[in-house]
Write a structure and sequence with these properties.
- By secondary structure, the chain is mostly beta strands.
- It contains 1 helix and 47 strands.
- The chain starts with 34 loop residues before the first strand and ends with a strand.
């Protein structure tokens, strides 16, 4: 729900050596096939079964009507676009002046439940639900009481409503007193429930009225360690609301007409009391706590108030979210088409003399620390291994103790990737060979990871460098085989981490080294855009090529993808303190978050990479070291 900027225009650039595989599957309201999209001068059919992204239906490429309508510049829907997902201007839901955007997040038990959105006694939209939790969206200019109604109850059919979002403000279903479809021995006998077991509805009141004129909704998502932590919401130096925070991660919401700096303040620290603040939503825009520089309640093990960029309030203090009510939009940068980097010296080397290298880093910034898992080659054992270390500042990186993973329950993790999967409340580590995953609740304890489990059923031989990224509905597993082909598998959020089968994303027929390995994919903050990186080597040392897309299903458009104009390589890196590495190889961008969506901030790009700091008679013994690239305009 972060504020976005228009996505970059697709150019339709011909690139004969790439084969794109496009598939986008979702369960949203349908659009009419008679409606076409003028996609930057090219006519493309509109999808029947999805509103957003690109898809493949009826043996042809198609585009969702929302994506078509939201494109930047000329173009848009053409033809007879009169369905509920693309209504004419004189019908409810036109999206025109005075319209309201409404999203209902819900799922069905059987997948054939019929649910209607009713406002002021009018049925605005009717959907047939999927069995997975999904978003169902519509626009309307009708206002009044809003109800989500289950209309075809039968054996095996039930509906779970998570929340509705009206004009950017979230209303949780379990917070509503009015639920005529709940069941407590008889229908209509319960309230404060997400479940509709019987024909009936959950009433959300009239969310279109704003008490006090120009008021704002503020939601704080947080949890306490003990369950009696006292937290205040302060706006413009006024205390707007004080809550006693429960132990589960919950939403705490208030409406106010006061504007100014927002602070979430922990006020009764004692004993084991601590507060974890996930994010706030102010006037429909989400601000992550770990992205905020000011945190006066963080404890770094030595003193209070000593760290920022953390969700944790260990001491009496506050996290400041600045003033999100400013008329000036928050800063968002577009990805450049050409990249220029400055390299640090070699910052991290292996801590044991029998380790030839430290390489393949994954980096997560969490709780005021940079956490790195990486690969080493153990010359004493003649085998690959892995290590973990953390530090608060890059100046401390090389002296940070490196913990060997070999004798842990997980064992070694070669070419690891680490992220926090919000739906499970667990950290995941993805590794090879073959594709495997492990979990923990504590990223800082390398001995706490579980035993590895298989990741991809039907994995092809030679697979390596596995990479997971998720959107709101699905998780995607990208991987390579050193054959000039990039592969992908896909599963629903509810089914993660169970992947099965795979498809080709792209192929470069000039040779395997043109599309080699080390794929990274990220979500760009402030834009409906994803960035893909793949390592290559052609005439010289290794470098990274890049592509972009507005969907994880593709298609992928070349961004900076040549040896002369790479994402990162010898051609666009300067070395103020002396060139110590030849080529830019396997690494990871420093993320703006730490969860499964893998977000990056294009205003502050840094890339942790392995640099070849010398030569060796065989690849395993090459003395790779870790450095950091910082992007400069």
């Amino acid at each position: 729900m972060k504020k976005t900027i228009p996505s970059s225009r697709f150019t339709g650039l011909a690139f004969s050596t790439l084969v794109f595989s496009v598939a986008f599957i979702t369960a949203q309201a349908q659009a009419q096939t008679s409606c076409q999209c003028d996609w930057y001068g090219e006519t493309t059919p509109m999808c029947e079964h999805q509103n957003e992204g690109w898809g493949w239906e009826n043996s042809q490429t198609c585009i969702g009507i929302t994506t078509c309508s939201d494109q930047y510049g000329d173009g848009g829907p053409r033809g007879s676009c009169s369905s509920s997902s693309s209504p004419s201007d004189d019908t409810p839901g036109s999206g025109g002046e005075g319209s309201h955007n409404i999203t209902v997040r819900m799922s069905g038990t059987s997948g054939e439940e019929s649910v209607s959105l009713d406002i002021a006694g009018q049925t605005i939209q009717t959907w047939t639900l999927s069995t997975s939790m999904q978003d169902y969206t519509v626009s309307t200019d009708v206002t009044g009481e809003l109800r989500v109604a289950f209309t075809n109850d039968a054996d095996g059919r039930d509906v779970q409503v998570d929340y509705v979002i009206v004009n950017g403000t979230t209303f949780q279903a379990e917070d509503q007193e009015d639920n005529t479809g709940a069941y407590d021995g008889s229908c209509g006998g319960g309230s404060y429930s997400e479940m509709l077991h019987c024909n009936g509805s959950i009433g959300f009141g009239n969310p279109f009225t704003s008490p006090g004129g120009d008021s704002y909704s503020i939601t704080v998502r947080m949890s306490g360690v003990v369950g009696d932590e006292s937290v205040s919401l302060e706006v413009g130096d006024q205390t707007i609301e004080t809550w006693t925070v429960a132990t589960g991660m919950l939403d705490y919401t208030v409406t106010t007409d006061v504007t100014g700096e927002i602070r979430v303040a922990f006020t009764n620290d004692a004993g084991d009391r601590d507060v974890q603040v996930d994010y706030i939503i102010a006037n429909g825009i989400t601000y992550q706590a770990e992205d905020q520089r000011v945190n006066t309640g963080f404890h770094d093990g030595t003193s209070c108030g000593s760290g920022g960029y953390s969700e944790m309030l260990h001491c009496n203090g506050y996290i400041s979210f600045g003033n999100p009510f400013d008329d000036e939009p928050s800063e968002h940068c577009a990805l450049p088409s050409q990249f220029n980097w400055t390299s640090s010296p070699a910052l991290i080397g292996p801590s044991q003399s029998n380790w030839a290298s430290v390489k393949d880093p994954t980096i997560v910034q969490y709780n005021g620390l940079s956490h790195i898992y990486a690969t080493v080659f153990d010359t004493a054992l003649n085998s690959w291994g892995s290590v973990y270390f953390n530090f608060a500042d890059w100046a401390q990186a090389d002296s940070a103790p490196q913990t060997y993973m070999r004798n842990t329950t997980m064992g070694n993790a070669v070419a690891p990737q680490v992220f926090y999967f919000q739906p499970h409340g667990l950290w995941y580590q993805i590794t090879q060979w073959g594709g495997a995953y492990s979990t923990t609740t504590d990223i800082s304890d390398p001995s706490s990871w579980s035993a590895k489990q298989p990741l991809l059923a039907g994995e092809p031989s030679g697979s390596l460098d596995f990479w997971v990224i998720c959107d709101d509905n699905n998780c995607y597993l990208f991987f390579s085989r050193n054959d000039g082909v990039l592969y992908m598998s896909k599963t629903s959020i509810n089914n993660f981490p169970n992947f099965s089968g795979y498809e080709v994303v792209m192929q470069d027929n000039r040779g395997a080294n043109h599309l080699f390995e080390a794929v990274n994919v990220y979500k760009v903050d402030g834009a409906d855009q994803y960035l893909m990186l793949v390592e290559a080597y052609i005439s010289g040392p290794r470098f990274f090529r890049s592509w972009t897309s507005n969907s994880l299903d593709g298609p992928w458009t070349p961004l900076a993808d040549t040896e002369q104009n790479p994402f990162a390589g010898n051609a666009n890196v300067t070395w103020p303190q002396g060139k110590w590495a030849d080529g830019i190889s396997h690494g990871e961008l420093v993320r703006s978050g730490y969860d499964e969506k893998l977000t990056i901030d294009p205003c502050n790009l840094q890339f942790v990479y392995q640099g070849q700091a010398g030569t060796a008679p065989r690849y395993e013994e090459i003395p790779y070291r870790l450095g950091v690239l910082t992007h400069s305009d």
